[in-house]
Structure formats: C-alpha cells, structure tokens
Model the fold of this input.
Amino acid sequence: MTRRVFLLQGLAQNPEDWSKVLQHLPPDIAAEPVDALQLGFGPEQELSLEQAAAELEEQIGEGDDVVIVGLSYGAVIAARHAIDHPRPHRKYLLAGGQIKPRRWPGPLLLRAHPAARIFMQLRTRRRLDPHKVRSIMRMYASLDLRPKLHRITSRVTFAVGTIDRPHRKPARDVVQRVPHSEVVELTLTEHEPNKTGPHQLAAHIERLARS
Done:
C-alpha cells in the first residue's frame, strides 16, 4: 500500500505546475495538488500560517499514511503543518523552503509587494488580491520557524537543487533541529524543481510514498 501525496506549490505557481512531476509518478501513487495560495486567509485577507496549517490538515483528513510535499512558499506552510500537527508516521518533502530568511530581504519585501504581485500574476496567469500579497510579504519579513522545529516528530526530507545555493543553509537548519531529517541534492536543479528537475523530485516522492 502506498501513501497518499499532497502537493503545495510555490508562491508564483499554480497547482497545475505539478503536472511534470505527476507524469513521472507511477499510476498507483495518488497525488493531489493543494492550492497553497488559497490557504490561511481570514476575513481581512491577513495570512495566518497557523490557519493555513489547520486548513491543510482538514484537507488531508484522518490517517497518517501521507506524504506532504511543499515547494518554496508551499514548503513554509508544510513545515508549519509539521510543527502544529505532529504525527510521527507522516512524511514531508520540503523543496527550496525558507525557515528563516536573511535580514536584508525583509524591508525590501515589504516595499516591493506591488511589484511582487505583478510578477506573481504574470507567472500564475491569475488575478491576485493585493491585500493577500502584502500579507504574504509581511509573513516572510518576520518568518522564523527555527524555535519551533524541535516539535516536529515526522520524518522530513529537505530537497535542495545544486544550483539553488540560497537554500542550503535552511536545509542545514532543518537537519540540526529536526531529529528524523535528511538533505538530498537534486542535480543541476534550480529553485523550482517541479519544473527544472521533475523526474528527480518524483523519484523522492515515490521513495517516501512506498516506505
């Protein structure tokens, strides 16, 4: 029996951007894309990672035989989900995610949210609420999951592309702070491995889904 797989895309992506990965997965592995950009927003369009993790838990439902895959922004939500909903038998694959961004991007992100929204709309080909985008930028400016990582009881695999140098330190942070964790390298892969290394990402998803 294989585990169910849930896929959370990056900030400037759509759920459909998992299509290349899905093509490399065997038909007996059930993989369901979850729209990360729709998770965690309250009435005032303010992002709450805690709420995003709770909504993801509702979509997963009962059972521990699952693999949660998060890419970049989706990896932040997946990591918070692992913190808030500890289940030792669940497995996580985090690709290109930040645990604590460097200091300098914070003020830049807060000032640049209009440009970020335009970029995201061009990449996703969808209209995005400016309040939501601003709230996401505020989240990144203050993000620091390091003090909470010790609460994770699940097995965590942190995938880093060999061309994605900025995310090597977050990978080391995860391994140092999460007991059951590992780092795997994706050869000649950039920040969006679902596009630049889908066969490698699919291979790790299959490995976790069958174990």
In short: The chain has a mean pLDDT of 91.
